[in-house]
Amino acid sequence: MYSLFIITRNRPSILKNTIEEIFNQTLPPQSILIVDNSDDDATQLMYEQANDSRLQYHRVGYNSGPAGGAKIGMEILFEQGYEWVVWGDDDDPPQFKDVIEKLFSIIPQININTIGVIGAVGTKLNLRNGLTIRIPDKDLNGLIEVDNVSGGMFPLISKNVYRKKIFSDPNLFFSFEDLDFCLAVKRAKLKIIVSKDEIYRHRFLFSRLGIKKKYKVKSKNSLWREYYSTRNIIYILLRKEKAYGAAIYITIRTIFKIFYLFRYGLKYGKLNFYYLFKGLCDGYRNRMGMTILPITKK
Predict the structure, then answer these.
(1) What is the CATH number of the domain that holds 41?
(2) 269-277: long-range contacts at Cβ-Cβ below 8 A with a sequence spacing of 24 or more?
(3) How far apart are CA 121 and CA 178, in angstroms?
(4) Which of 113, 142, 177, 208 meets the CB 3.0–4.6 Å disulfide criterion with 67?
């Protein structure tokens, strides 16, 4: 019925657990494709030792990032003839046993010819300021069209997307690759649908009902992520969406954040300044790909 790809890099034990959780779904995939960005052989060894005919393995040979890995995964599985492909991450196992079954239950309720992506949790994007819009708790029932399926929320991708040659953009490397992909789906006049009931269920699980979005101070080892997030949102708004006002708004917010975060110490502020300012500059001058070495999350 469908297949699923998982992008991974140097985390075979985490990957193994996620694969087990996915195969324990009430509607498991026919196969799981491992898209391996690793620079060692540990993940390939784990795959070989599993000796499971339901697993496929593709060694990228370099770190293509989540963005490049997603493009590879989509191309391989759609070319194998699957009508539906799920985008997975190695460290994001499903939170419920029936997550994917719930996604497939949405299909009979919609026009299959106009659908691009179905997801468990999603958000909208305000193209006037470049910020995501959280759907209010009081509105969480039925189906809703969104602009993005949140990261790790198992986007179920229709072959309609493949027919229009829409893939994740490898130039992004890391961060907002899911948003960029979903916006490309929207530009192709295909819909992105989520169930408000699923959003509610996930918010309840993580105790996120009734809260407002707040900025969390990142650790020093996570600030490299801020570089890619800043660079990529500027790139997306300018080059893809032509939302010039939103790009300017994000730039102003970022400059404010650069100076505001000096309150956490000079050393922290200088490191934050480096990543955010470089992110702004590279986003505007279209300097893409892996430009800063990621720090692997253990």
Answers:
(1) 3.90.550.60
(2) 271/220, 271/223, 272/223, 272/226, 275/223, 275/224, 275/226, 275/227, 275/230, 276/226, 276/227, 276/230
(3) 12
(4) 177
Please write the tens of the pLDDT for every residue from 166-224.
999 999 999 999 999 999 999 999 999 999 999 999 999 988 888 776 667 889 999 99
Residue at 31 is within a domain: yes
Give the residue-averaged pLDDT of 23-31.
Answer: 98
- Residue 233 is which amino acid? I
Q: In this structure, is residue 75 part of a structural domain?
A: yes
Final residue in a domain of this structure, among 180, 205, 230: 205
pLDDT number for residue 210: 81
Percent of the chain with pLDDT over 70: 98
Residue 234 to residues 84, 182, 204, 271, 279, Cα–Cα distance (Å)? 31, 16, 32, 20, 9
pLDDT of residue 211: 77
- Which pTM value belongs to this model? 0.95
Q: How confident is the model at residue 297 (pLDDT cuts 50, 70, 90)?
A: low
Residues 123 and 176 in one domain: yes
Return mean pLDDT, the chain.
95
230 within 8 A of 288, measured Cβ to Cβ: no
Shared domain check, 196 and 168: yes
